[in-house]
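Q: Protein A?
A:
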Amino acid sequence: MAERKYEFREIERKWQERWQKADLFRTEDTTDKPKFYGLDFFPYPSGAGLSVGHCRNYIPTDVVCRYKRMQGFNVLHPMGWDAFGLPAENEAIKQRSHPKKTVPQYIATYKRQMNLIGIGYDWSREINSSSPDYYKWTQWIFLLLYKRGLAYRSFAPANWCPSCSTVLANEEVKDGRCWRCDTPIEKKDLPQWFFRITAYADRLIDDLDIIDWPESIKTMQRNWIGRSEGAEVIFHSEQGDEIVVYTTRPDTLRGATFMVLAPEHPLVDKLTTPEKRAEVEEYKRYAQRQTAIERQTAEREKTGVFIGAYAVNPVNEARIPIWIADYVMMGYGTGAIMAVPAHDERDFAFALKFGIPIIPVIDRIDGLAKSSVCKDCVRDGFDAVMEKSHISFEEHGEKYHVVLMGDEEINTFINLLKEHVKEDRWAAVVGARWTFVFADEVLAFDSYDAEKHILSRLKEIDPRVGDARTLMELLFREQFLRDALFHAEYGDMINSGEFSGTPGASAKKKVTEWLEETGKGKYAVNYKLRDWLISRQRYWGAPIPIIHCPDCGEVPVPEEDLPVLLPDVENYQPTGTGESPLAGIPEFVNTSCPKCGKPAKRETDTMGGFACSSWYFLRYVSPHLDSAPFDKDLAAYWLPVDLYVGGAEHAVMHLLYARFWTKVLHDAGWVPFVEPFAKLMNQGMVLAYTPHRTLEAGETGEAEEAEGIEEEDHDLIPLFPEEVEKYDPSKIVWKWVKMSKSKRNVVTPDAMAEKFGADSLRIYELFVAPFEEAIQWSEEGMNGAFRFIGRVWRLITEWADRFDPDWRSKVAQEALEDQSAKALRRKTHQTVKKVTQDIEDFAFNTAVAALMELVNEMYSFAQSISSGDSQTANYAATMSEAIENLILLLSPMAPHIADELWEMLPSWPGKREFTLLESWPTFDEEVAKAEEIEIVAQVNGKVRDRMVIPADADENTMRELALASERVQADLAGKSVKKVIVVKGKLVNIVAG
């Protein structure tokens, strides 16, 4: 056949039109086939359209869904739009338009781009979360939660974004800033609607064990939920007020040297002494300005105020001061903590700063102790004495730095110190022992009284002690000792009265049992997870279906009156007053009570967008059903989703909320499963090499975060490439950063499809790196994918007229007659095997690599035929087998060219128009088996030779061949073989000496 040019634009347009006309991707309404539900996170449509970064999500899912379809599965692969919420509304405001206008425009762009790159969605199931026939059922589920006691309204301090003029859930606050616009968050007291997700905290953690998700995502959810086991301990103020403290470490109770209350704790005002009142009030105002994230950041310098009052430790009756500090929150535990600075990092830093005693009560597990001995504190020759006793030390200026391990060595060293320390001098051992050594006595640092006595004596004899308020403050001055002063391990209890010596493994349990027996506390479980704040003071969202009646209170909107329609208004922008724009629309607000019929008012807050995205995967099974949110039987058939693909950034928002709603629906009898997504995959980011300019003097700007490079010390402003020439080259910095509109570095699929073709884009994104890893976008890489597609095109167009549809009856004989035919057939079956497994494993890069190897082998075979190296003129059956399998293997990855090449082949009975309707290739294990393999011969674990041997060689044969190797023999010269270890098919290791 004469060479035909690869007109990729024409070819791709042709097949997209044919697929659409044939309604190729419509899912069958049948439940008599094995199902596969593949789903991408549905996007919120924005004006920027899709980037090639989005494609990294959609293309792999499409590959798997096409592959499963060819395997005979009934495949559901839908798409829809997360059209409600802040992103869509903010975009419309930015465009000075209205979301009811911008959203349809953006959806049209997204659909066009998805079709452009050949994604096979069943568009008959398209959903839009801002459509009344969708959010009617979001409201219905809200009412389901409300009736089950899982939705409630409460007056509470909320995360307020002044830019978005709305409240944000805790999960939507990132490092103290709005997840959407990056504005610093403020606190505002408002009536808010919540979903009681905390009621499902245990199940949300426990059921992570039954789903196939990345461990990193599971860990993020476990940490966010933050389940911990411990005890509630009852302290009392000196005035007799009960202060309940939650602790995960009841075994450290005797080390509690102060108590910290949240600034908002109800007892703060009562317990604060008059002389501390002004300082406490000022600090409370300071704490109120901080976000929850800022208050809990471990790296922040600790702040706090002593309120003048004291509490009594219930285990030893010790009098401990009460402080307030912003790192203690009312929302976690009881809003009060017992501070054990010797075994909690935050408490340690706090106690050091404010001079509060630090008493160790838990022994180190590693047995490590340290001492920093001033040379002028011990008699001459102390170094020789230590060497003689095998004590490990180093000299650092005028000090000996000593490291000790274990009781025996520690005791030996303390005895040496006692014998050699000078009069009016001292030394200390810290870590696994807490001892101060003087010439006349050895004192254990094991209590308040001991600390007072030791510190008093030190100040009498050593002016260097100076103004140290505590022993730990003094010891902390010595850098060498710092890592031995604090630990949070579960070692044996020390300095703890009758509990001293209790093993760490049982300490928590024993102390908790004592607390319960004495009535001073009880076992408790706590969570970091807070209830999900769902209400927004914005227009573009699903109205909350509640009516407020002066007589009846909160009244749910009757189901028959759903949906509560979002009013069609022109002025929808946020008010900034704490009320939704809906509050200013009388015809929406004013209504009658469904119970008593009297005048009432509608709830004017709307639901956040995450409500709509918490169940959309269920709507796809019956998107046009108007009598229920979804068909129960179809949901039972299709769900859970078999493959869910999207970004890791939604780990503690969408993914957690969707799991919660699914469990509620399960408990209400609507679904038989408890988890919505059986398997989750997160794609790596797409990075672009982006120019930035440094800020000029007087300019302000936010530093850009860059992935994959070191952080810069100065702020940078991203530029469009065409802007670079406007600036001094010395001011330009190029960095690999995430591709995004704000970084001005977006590459669109439109541009790549126009230049290289959609199939080249698909191949490149699959091949460039493992799916989970970030990629650095490269047009040269796109060129490589385009060249590969071109090689496939040239090879098959050249051979299409020689294709033998009857190859199955001839191919085995050709393999017997010719070695090159046998080699190609082996490679074909090996490739089918590998590509099949790689798609199952999401290893698309190695799947493409296998196809490239097969193409190389096919070219070599074609060359051997044309040069006359083969014994017969034309082994068409062997090449035909390879061609058919290559096209079908390529079909999920590059479907346009696959269908075009398939059409070129001669017809035969049963041949279908589209490769998607053909069966996935199968392989013969015997044919795929290699005849020869390479093994390694080692001597004492070091590689000495590599040998090609028959693939079916047994262990004895491998042993003999390895021992016969000249290189192995040379290394064995003068040695005797003691043992030969054989790993069949891989290596032989000869142990000799």
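Q: Protein B?
A:
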Amino acid sequence: MGVFQVVEKKIPSYCAQCRSRCGCLAVVKDEKLLRIEPFPRHPTGKKLCPKGKAAPQIIYHKDRLLSPLKRKNPKTNPDPGWEPISWDDALNQIAKKMFAIRERHGAEQVAFSVTTPSGTNISDSIGWIQRFIRVFGSPNTIYSTEICNWHKDYATRFTFGTDIGTPDFENTDCVLLWGNNPEETWLARSIEIRKALKRGAKLIVIDPRPTRFARIADCWIRPRPGSDQEIALCLAHLLIDSKKFDKNFIKNWTNAPLLVRLDTGYFLRENDLKEEGSENICFGYDQSNQTLVRYDMSLGIWLDRITHVATSCLVEVPTTVGNISCETAFHLYSSLAARYVPVAIEEFTGVPQKTLHKAANILSTVSSVAYYAWNGVSQSTNATQTDRAISLLYTLTGSYGSAGGNVAGVAAEFHDISGVDLISEKQKSKALGLKKRPLGPGLMGWVTGRDVYRAIIKRQPYPVRMLFSFGGNLLSAQPDTRLAYKAFQKLDFHVHADFFLNPTANFADIVLPVSTAWEREGLQTGFDASLKGMKWVQLRKPVVEAIGQSRSDIEIVMGLAKLLGFSSDFFDLDADQGHNHILSRAGLTVDQLRKNPTGVMLHTNVPFKAFDETNPNGHPRGFQTATRKIEVYSEKLLRKGYHAIPFAASESRNNNNNKLPLILGCAKTLAFCHSQHRHIALLRKLRPDPTLEIAPKAAKKRRINEGDWVEISTESGAFLSKAKIVKDLQPDSVFAQHGWWVDDLALDLNSTDAGSMTNMNTVVSSLKEDPISGSLPLRFTWCEVKKLSKCAFTPTSTSTNQMG
């Protein structure tokens, strides 16, 4: 008899671990995943990061959850006393509890928590989970979007009417990275950027840390943390003052020429001039004829013939209540920017004037700019107006929507599975924190953790009785750790679905085991590292069988949907029907994608200058804003009590505590996603310990050497890290990583609470927040650092105990 030889199979796939969603080949033998390899034919498949390569260690880790678990012990007991139960028992208990709360008290008293699709495997399932939450009727989902993606995806809508768009790196002449480090967080995009640089594109990086892109940039702006808004306004001033901005774009495609009443702050409208006038008609000023000209906001067109509409002027206008002084929107904005001259900005931010001039010169001389800003500017108490300032600076380049710029939209339309229309307006209005932040994430039912915690503890404005967490680790990945501990002990019922137990899961009443992306099917409609990737659609097949009794998130919500009577809202519990619904607008089907496992390239393109296309009424499509133009001036913000132009309220102006002279920020590392992966051998070896980056001057003053354990103190508490001395940091700035926790970390500091000893989130206060989004100062907190006289960690802290 011959010897039967089992061969390796290479299965086309993509890694769903983070936003990069890198195309890959899963190498399987004997029905077991051996490794992950790059797949260069895929738009995002050129390279893989360590997290993708660690897939086998994640799947087969000894601590994987293999069956549903139920708590036996009280929540005050450190040992939950887990006992296995069946899936039927688990789902029946959960459904019964959800139904009872909804019927007796209202669906809003069941809150949900959903982990990020940008840094976890949940990206394949997020739409289905949101659909389930909305069909159930809860307006309360902790999504952490206020400290993640909301500003680039939603705050930009105050300016562009759409999200930040996909940068066209293939055609751009300049890449602008602002508080975004794709080398560590988005590998596929970093590859696209390097291709652009090799082609000759300029690179501007605005980041307080010497990232790899910062070191090779044509211009690296190194601001003090918290001063990004001032930098943006200063650069805008330099472009405007030198008249080296796209004047035609500003005049034709923004609301810059519209006149603003200086008494009310609102646009001058026709009904200001005559009682029967229209609310939709505003005015500009034609300098050639020295007359008012009418602009129809609903159509996005000028109604009068224009010779030369002014973008910058001050005029007196007779109205029904007398003469009113008016300025153009652009004049108000440019006057604000003019306050931020380089000499003052250098003193305030530490950025040399020549560096500011160099950046402005690059922006003014290239023909196109592609930019991206993310967590570096979104985790602050002035995040929304900072985003506005950056968006308006970018608008001055005239690149938005054009080849080589940021392009909004998709290559084809797909149905949204998330069920935005399946929850009533009445339920939407009950979102926690919405009254306080009426234009923030609460509009979509995305609430902050602290609003939920306070509702649990204080039972105001109503009690939250149950929390259902799909992944995540709120105790380690969010601020307000102490408040969360208190809240979780008071919850009536808590469910957590995940791959592993973590500090948050340990407070649950029932824990559900979830399959990894490698063990389930997943649909991706566009890979947004590039415009080419946006045309790629792929149905990822399971490469191995699910471990133990683990199930996909989609299976979990469908099982509960059946018990709660939602089957008809879930395509009769048929995932293929749901996926076909998503794909139908693009003319694709699940069967087509299964026959093409490497993916399908759409024949359509993400459109350039979609705003200039003619709509059915014969007018330009314009932008999805109230004025149908990019909004230099936002009445939407003004009407809710916010600034219509981005006045700076910087965090770094005042320090009322001279005992805390340093600024604490944070940054992600390539090794981990948020609070995940510290127990994965391959990844922990890359970053064995939590580190604090500190400048040589600051370290020397405190007698801190490389590798010393240090204590970082703020007004809210202290945590520990290992010193890493980094040249080219601002001397008053230090940087840690959030999300550290290890339940069996051996500490010699009379404490068994290892997570709180190493997690910087425990010392970030929520007393001050961004008034629009609710963002918190994860990138800016006053602190002091001191060397520990005693070694904090035992020699086993980075060895087998953490490697699994």
